[in-house]
Amino acid sequence: MISLGCPDRTGIVATIAGFLAELGGWIVEASYHTDPDTNWFFTRQEVRVDSLELTADELRERFAPVAASLGERTEWRISDTGERQRVVILVSKAAHCLYDLLGRVAAGELDVEVCAVIGNHDGLAAVTQAHGIPFHHVRFPKAGTDETARLAAFDEIRKIVDSHDPHAVVLARFMQVLPMELCAAWAGRAINIHHSFLPSFVGARPYHQAHTRGVKLVGATCHYVTAELDAGPIIEQDVIRVDHTDSIDDMVRKGRDIEKVVLARGLRSHLEDRVLMHGNRTVVF
Amino acid sequence: MISLGCPDRTGIVATIAGFLAELGGWIVEASYHTDPDTNWFFTRQEVRVDSLELTADELRERFAPVAASLGERTEWRISDTGERQRVVILVSKAAHCLYDLLGRVAAGELDVEVCAVIGNHDGLAAVTQAHGIPFHHVRFPKAGTDETARLAAFDEIRKIVDSHDPHAVVLARFMQVLPMELCAAWAGRAINIHHSFLPSFVGARPYHQAHTRGVKLVGATCHYVTAELDAGPIIEQDVIRVDHTDSIDDMVRKGRDIEKVVLARGLRSHLEDRVLMHGNRTVVF
Amino acid sequence: MISLGCPDRTGIVATIAGFLAELGGWIVEASYHTDPDTNWFFTRQEVRVDSLELTADELRERFAPVAASLGERTEWRISDTGERQRVVILVSKAAHCLYDLLGRVAAGELDVEVCAVIGNHDGLAAVTQAHGIPFHHVRFPKAGTDETARLAAFDEIRKIVDSHDPHAVVLARFMQVLPMELCAAWAGRAINIHHSFLPSFVGARPYHQAHTRGVKLVGATCHYVTAELDAGPIIEQDVIRVDHTDSIDDMVRKGRDIEKVVLARGLRSHLEDRVLMHGNRTVVF
Amino acid sequence: MISLGCPDRTGIVATIAGFLAELGGWIVEASYHTDPDTNWFFTRQEVRVDSLELTADELRERFAPVAASLGERTEWRISDTGERQRVVILVSKAAHCLYDLLGRVAAGELDVEVCAVIGNHDGLAAVTQAHGIPFHHVRFPKAGTDETARLAAFDEIRKIVDSHDPHAVVLARFMQVLPMELCAAWAGRAINIHHSFLPSFVGARPYHQAHTRGVKLVGATCHYVTAELDAGPIIEQDVIRVDHTDSIDDMVRKGRDIEKVVLARGLRSHLEDRVLMHGNRTVVF
């Protein structure tokens, strides 16, 4: 699979398609998009693996000069869809997103290897282990009390995560804010689910905020983690209707169903290499 | 129709239902709600008009002591659904909400009298007059240039509006911010449609803000106008999906379809006396 | 909780509310509806348990003459929301609905006792037992080969189910058609999730049917099981958008997310005694 | 704009993209899809008009051999997006779709020429003429009484329609079934809005059918007209939630909002040449 972004001009499609045609590449799915504001061109080409007689590395080598010919600011990557992707999941107490992801993996819907689940509480250890996945409990100091201990806890998490070199680090209702260093280290791989329709209700207790404001829909947002809280590029969002009969608890319950599907959809798009970032926005092919 | 809010306690339903039963009132639709946070009770009772041998005023007189017995903070109103409701619409240049409302009235779906349309531009005069409705063009100074002239323009609007004593003043993409005096004078009757899913993207150019943030849904909010811009009690909201292929113009176009239905639904709820305000939130029966 | 249906006339609300007020009953949630076509009145009254000094049985005894006074066709039931409800789940091979329900129970969202899971395959035994719930594998003959063996298998299922006297028998993508006797025995308690937006695509392979027809949305329907296949009273439905890029497998995958929430919502409404049947339609308070 | 369908094989994208690149064609929007069931390839290429120094006819001439090289079953068309498209609208009594379409045209959202509106009743003459569009009243005999008169009425309609050679013939809640000859003559151009979520509730009074079945969502379907009633290729569908409080009239009212947007979206897709038919299914780019 080739994902590429470069300044728009005529002939890009012809160049890439010509390159693939020469190699006998059978394009299963091809997507193109031009952003008219920035005049930037995006494409994703999914090629049938048996139509190419090259390894991913050989393909990268052959494609490099083609990409270079499209301008020096061109960004591209080639991923091997044959490779099973590795995922590490960070959790806290809330169970629903973890149950949902593990259920999807167990049912064969999400074909990934969950290498580890890391929790700042141990309440989700049992369900994790029942799926045959190692659970790591990393203790955090009480919020705001001991910054050194907090950073130490994150160091521990980082070691576990990095030991698996995962394609995605999923913050499945992990309630700790990542330090800037980790945001940078995992840029483009750390995915968060926030329980509001961002940019509304950033930060803590978004359902309480939503209830206070009296909104008629609550939502969830799956986004890449960046240094600014809840402000990273959005991959997927959805909402569900609520009304005056819904207490905050009802909103939380209804919202959970949206959180689960929004996270699952966002993660799938990421793992299928369908998401191209462009500044703080995303193209999701 | 009786709408009532009062502190919750046992026996309120029995009291009201007993009152209506004694008069032979045939309840067509009855709604109840208790807000657990504030322990406030809300009800709306729609009674078949031919089952009562009273005028609305007589009913009010009879009901007053019943309401008083429910506590001194009780708020209630009785409206006569037989009376045709009057609406004044404020517009600027954007045509879609006005076309939509007038179409609904013409098609008999919205059974109201549109007494007048007032515009700070005259572009929508022709369509208004084609529906047999008077159009008033009230000129506004360029934004931020002449506060006196702006307030004078609003005085002119106020005179026209108040001469009709309307049940609803609809800001159908009227791009001027109401002065505080008008917000107060029309409290609970001035209804705005804002072209975002509030509280996101308050103020000007919300679709531009939405595009910049890269959201995956755009929305619209129908709310009562209060002194704080775009912060009044929300009556209705909805959203529509957008993606990276949608330019700002596409978002504007898709959003218009949501604005129209959200405004029409919100206005209908208001005119059917289904909306009870409670602080900055609404109960919509 | 009181649920009641009777022919409409004036004074019903007053009668019931008066009855509850006399007992000091604090109404937490009250819903009323009149069906104008059949002139039938429906109500559901949820009363705070600590406001009554009666057991459910005593309340039933006291209410019986009140109900009788509302006409001889009056149907009513009083359920004790303090009692934990029992559920038996029937499954086949598809895992997603079972994972979802068990996840909701484990996370405390659905406060029920899952007494047993019964499968005509044994693939879901492990996940069931991991939740500490007994799994029964009941073998079925190959479809259409041995009617006697099929009915014997259902007899076995019936014995297991009835031994728990469950409030709900959930067919969570159970692929066998219930015999008429079981439909009758479990009337109003057997709940099915059908993977289409009924009445479209009744019967087998609804996603294939949907793909062939080229629809732009796929859906799911939660309904009571009746003798006629996929034709029972509908409790809940929802849909999700698909397009030409979705293969049948994609539709199946997207549809699963809808099946799960529609089943969970429908089951919750049933267990909270919010569903009143009226012919082949439902009132869901 | 080039739309093309042909049997899939390697190199098609390269061929078409190469052709356009050679002409200096700047691709604004390119879409590709392969149907895995039929192994059929679809593409739509929107080229910036000022990047080509050819007329549409010259482009067609140049492209013909390219298309031929992709197999003899290849189907393609080139449309000139610079040309303003012509639309004829057929109506009966229901006003909402016509109001909606005319409002969109008047507001500049839908940039088409509405050449004529034809009604089997004359109730919508005034609003049509207020938009400066000719209205033709063609009388139909009472249903089922006089087949000859019915066909004569359709002959009259056909003459009016064909005199404008329209890009789309829109049946905007036109309640007459087109004769087979007209279905054939206008194949791929006659667009209907059906007021149900097809394939549910084909034919007359779908909201009544929906109410009887007790569905929890009602919908609308925009499709090409074919000889079999309400069975043509679907362009767009959507739904809206209803519940037991909605009478048939309420369903009709809520459904109208869906009909309007579904028709408007479907028509836009058709006019922008985004719809490629494939058997009874559509690819909507």
UniProtKB/TrEMBL annotation, chains A, B, C, D:
Record's function text: Catalyzes the hydrolysis of 10-formyltetrahydrofolate (formyl-FH4) to formate and tetrahydrofolate (FH4).
EC code(s) of this entry: 3.5.1.10
One of the GO BP terms on file: 'de novo' IMP biosynthetic process
PROSITE patterns, A to Z: ACT
Catalytic residues identified in the record: 230
Enzyme class: hydrolase
Ranges for domain ACT: 1-86
Gene3D superfamilies according to UniProt: 3.30.70.260, Formyl transferase, N-terminal domain (3.40.50.170)
Catalytic activity, as annotated: (6R)-10-formyltetrahydrofolate + H2O = (6S)-5,6,7,8-tetrahydrofolate + formate + H(+)
PANTHER family: FORMYLTETRAHYDROFOLATE DEFORMYLASE, FORMYLTETRAHYDROFOLATE DEFORMYLASE 2, MITOCHONDRIAL
Pfam family, any one: Formyl_trans_N
Keywords: Hydrolase, One-carbon metabolism, Purine biosynthesis
SUPFAM superfamilies assigned: ACT-like, Formyltransferase
UniProt pathway: Purine metabolism; IMP biosynthesis via de novo pathway; formate from 10-formyl-5,6,7,8-tetrahydrofolate: step 1/1
InterPro entries per record: ACT-like_dom_sf, ACT_dom, Formyl-FH4-Hydrolase_C, Formyl_transf_N, Formyl_transf_N_sf, PurU, PurU_ACT
Protein's name according to its UniProt entry: Formyltetrahydrofolate deformylase
Similarity-based family: Belongs to the PurU family.
GO MF term (any one): formyltetrahydrofolate deformylase activity
